């Protein structure tokens, strides 16, 4: 039996943090949940709104608190940060949110026990690395949502092309949660059958490059229409929390600083990881072809350049 996680903190109650809180509440993902935000009234309002509907699902204890409440938490979910404004570059976003995350880390430190820390705020790879450096905790205990959402989007678009249930389509998007992400074509399979074999046998053709580009810009397309994305990332967070709570040993593409299996260091990047009650058990070394190895190196270098630029 794995460890039972029964208390989570969500730091940051903007659209993403609040949606995560609601999604976790209706799933009764944990038995206790505390919401923490610099705008305490906003956090209080989210708690009230969720509690008013608690009669309709299995009740949990959800309340508004402060950083002292993380001392007995099992999972700390960090969704603090600002969104990219018109005209902002990724470097601008990184600089703005690095300062916020350093402040969050400083507030967590006096009360930190042994919790797993899940980073959600963007740019998630950069902020996961910064938080890991600031807290200095074990590498298995801190990770970001990474490319879990990108992988989910990829499976969705591919399943649409193949006219199949999404649960029968498998593959990973790895690298940066951003412009240099890419699907590992050699890992894509349909019900255990390599994609190219499935397509030949079933008279299907798919353009993986076109799907990858669609995935890469999916978030921007949602933002163009509704100004923010929060439902899909909240479901990704719930999936990660489930893997932890149930000690699943699930393989998810998380942003991890434990990337030595790929010859990388000094950053956090999205890679397939085995996740259980103790956090990241290990990183799965995929058999990348030469092109995929180069794409991963490019993605890693891009992240390092952003980290270097943000420090200047």
From TrEMBL:
Stated role: Catalyzes the conversion of lactate to pyruvate.
Active site location: 177
Name listed for the protein in its UniProt record: L-lactate dehydrogenase
InterPro entries in UniProt: L-lactate/malate_DH, L-lactate_DH, L-lactate_DH_AS, Lactate/malate_DH_C, Lactate/malate_DH_N, Lactate_DH/Glyco_Ohase_4_C, NAD(P)-bd_dom_sf
Keywords noted in UniProt: Allosteric enzyme, Cytoplasm, NAD, Oxidoreductase
Positions contributing to beta-D-fructose 1,6-bisphosphate binding: 155, 170
Pfam families found in the cross-reference section: Ldh_1_C, Ldh_1_N
EC code(s) of this entry: 1.1.1.27
């Amino acid at each position: 039996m794995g460890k039972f996680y029964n208390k989570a903190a969500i730091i940051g109650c903007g659209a993403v943090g609040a949606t995560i809180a609601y999604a976790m509440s209706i799933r009764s993902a944990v038995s206790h949940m505390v919401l923490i935000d610099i705008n305490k009234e906003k956090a209080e309002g989210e708690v009230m709104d969720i509690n008013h509907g608690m009669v309709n699902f299995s009740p949990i204890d959800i309340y508004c608190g402060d950083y002292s409440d993380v001392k007995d938490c099992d999972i700390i979910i960090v969704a603090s940060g600002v969104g990219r404004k018109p005209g902002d570059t990724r470097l601008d976003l990184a600089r703005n949110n690095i300062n916020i995350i350093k402040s969050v880390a400083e507030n967590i430190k006096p009360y930190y026990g042994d919790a797993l820390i899940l980073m959600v705020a963007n740019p998630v790879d950069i902020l996961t690395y910064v938080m890991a450096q600031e807290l200095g905790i074990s590498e298995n205990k801190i990770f970001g949502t990474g490319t879990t959402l990108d992988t989910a989007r990829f499976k969705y678009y591919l399943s649409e092309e193949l006219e199949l249930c999404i649960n029968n389509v498998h593959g990973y998007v790895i690298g940066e949660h951003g412009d240099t992400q890419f699907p590992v074509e050699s890992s894509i399979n349909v019900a255990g059958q390599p994609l190219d074999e499935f397509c030949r046998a079933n008279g299907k053709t798919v353009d993986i490059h076109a799907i990858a580009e669609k995935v890469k810009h999916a978030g921007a397309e949602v933002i163009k229409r509704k100004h923010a994305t929060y439902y899909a990332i909240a479901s990704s967070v719930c999936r990660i929390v489930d893997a932890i709570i149930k000690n699943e040993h699930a393989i998810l593409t998380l942003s991890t600083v434990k990337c030595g299996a790929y010859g990388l260091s000094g950053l956090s990047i999205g890679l397939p990881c085995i996740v259980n009650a103790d956090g990241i058990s290990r990183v799965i070394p995929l058999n990348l072809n030469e092109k995929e190895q180069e794409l991963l190196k490019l993605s890693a270098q891009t992240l390092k350049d952003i980290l270097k630029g943000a420090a200047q």
